[in-house]
Amino acid sequence: MQPASVYNLALEKRLHRRVDITLPGRYMLANKQEYRCQTLDVSIGGIALSGFIRGNLGEKVIAYIDEIGRIEGTIVRHLEKGFAIAFTPSPAKRERLVDRLTWLMNKNVVEENDARQFTRHMPNLSETKFVLPDGRTYPCRIIDMSINGASIQIDVIPDIGAEIMLGKMNGRVIRHHDSGIAVEFTDIDDKGTIADHFGNQSSSTVH
């Protein structure tokens, strides 16, 4: 069985490529002036912004991006309508950024045709495990979840309809997606079990 950290490394390698994500924000250049912006693409080591004032190559810039948080880096490239920033996050911020980008990439992919009526969240505790009926156990990472289901990133893909246990919750695989599977909980009446096992759900940004 591979440790959960293996998934971090594989995901970081994938996220070094730039992901097209459009998010509003603002940035501050060396002149201490703030300007509105919008992301063009994001990776764990860089971000491309559309902004009215491009700044100078090599200039330090601080950006505050909705859903991501504070990013501090250096302008490394001019674009037609903006610029690209390179940054080197600390190990802790890197892990939070990986989680955040994963969530952003998948939040509109999973459960598109599901009849869920509950708000989906990114949990504070994202690493857990799931168990197949024969007892085989695998580490996994929760992408997002609601009171009656979850999307999880996993290398081992059970068949659709397979009964599994995710943490302490019994569930059923209802869909495959690019990062893993979508699970519908089959004991959703026990709402306390979800809170007890996964902790308070949060959509906090990277700081």
Any overview of this molecule?
The chain is of the alpha+beta class and 207 residues long. It has two domains: 5-91, Thrombin, subunit H (Beta Barrel), CATH 2.40.10.220; 108-202, Thrombin, subunit H. The protein has helices spanning 5-15, 91-106, 191-198; strands at residues 24-28, 34-42, 46-51, 60-65, 69-79, 82-86, 122-123, 127-131, 137-146, 149-153, 163-166, 169-177, 180-185, 201-202. The longest helix is centred in the middle third of the chain and has 16 residues, at 91-106. The protein starts with a helix and ends in a 5-residue tail after the last strand. The relative contact order is 0.14. The model is unreliable at 1-10, 110-118, 190-195 and 199-207 (pLDDT under 50).
Within the CATH hierarchy, at the fold level, what is the topology of the largest domain?
A: Thrombin, subunit H
Helix content: 10-25%
Low-confidence segments, given as residue ranges, are 1-10, 110-118, 190-195, 199-207
What is the number of domains? 2
Reading off the top of the CATH hierarchy, the class of the largest domain is best stated as Mainly Beta
Radius of gyration: 19 Å
The proportion of residues in beta strands is: 35-45%
Q: Total strand count, please?
A: 14
Gist?
The protein is an alpha+beta fold and 207 residues long. The protein has helices at residues 5-15, 91-106, 191-198, and strands at residues 24-28, 34-42, 46-51, 60-65, 69-79, 82-86, 122-123, 127-131, 137-146, 149-153, 163-166, 169-177, 180-185, 201-202. α1 (5-15) crosses α2 (91-106).
